[in-house]
């Protein structure tokens, strides 16, 4: 009898097409009590590190990134299993926006804070 070793599969990169669909849901009234089944793969990526998101985020337009900030803010606030905490994708998106000179954005920051109870949004953990 042999004993094999199991290695978990590397997490897949966020799907750009799926993110673009998600970016259309940016108003609180668009969010029902349950997530849209089609967007469920994104839930598993809510707590991924910045390096996981970096390549995909770099390929998106600035307006698409700002819309995704709104989506992930509302997803965490409205859907119970979509907790991101200090690794919410909003933080990585804002860091990408900053590299483009599009952040800080006073209006976006105010909107995020008004629609979230996550104290780490939009800047991340200042201690870590």
Characterization of the model:
The protein has helices at 16-22, 40-43, 50-58, 62-78, 89-99, 106-114. It has a domain at 49-118. 45% of the residues lie in helices and 0% in strands. Helix 3 (50-58) crosses helix 5 and helix 4 (62-78) runs antiparallel to helix 5 (89-99). It is mainly α and 128 residues long.
Quick overview of this protein structure:
This protein has 128 residues and is mainly α.
List keywords for this structure.
128 residues; mainly alpha; 6 helices
- DSSP summary, beta strand count: 0
Which geometry do the CA atoms define? globular
Head-to-tail CA distance between termini: 46 Å
What share of residues is helical?
Answer: 40-55%
- Unreliable parts: none
H/E series: HHHHHH
In terms of topology, how is this protein built?
Blueprint (H helix, E strand, L loop, with lengths): L15 H7 L17 H4 L6 H9 L3 H17 L10 H11 L6 H9 L14
Helix pairs in contact: 3-5, 4-5
């Amino acid at each position: 009898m042999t004993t094999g070793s199991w290695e978990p599969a590397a997490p897949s990169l966020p799907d750009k097409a799926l993110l673009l669909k998600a970016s259309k849901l940016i108003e609180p009234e668009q969010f029902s009590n349950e997530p849209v089944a089609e967007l469920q793969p994104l839930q598993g990526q809510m707590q991924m590190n910045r390096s996981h998101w970096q390549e995909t985020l770099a390929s998106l337009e600035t307006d698409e990134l700002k819309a995704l900030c709104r989506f992930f803010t509302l997803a965490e606030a409205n859907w119970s299993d979509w907790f991101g905490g200090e690794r919410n994708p909003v933080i990585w998106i804002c860091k990408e926006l900053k590299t483009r000179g599009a952040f800080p954005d006073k209006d976006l920051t105010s909107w995020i804070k008004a629609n979230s109870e996550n104290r780490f949004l939009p800047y991340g953990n200042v201690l870590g």
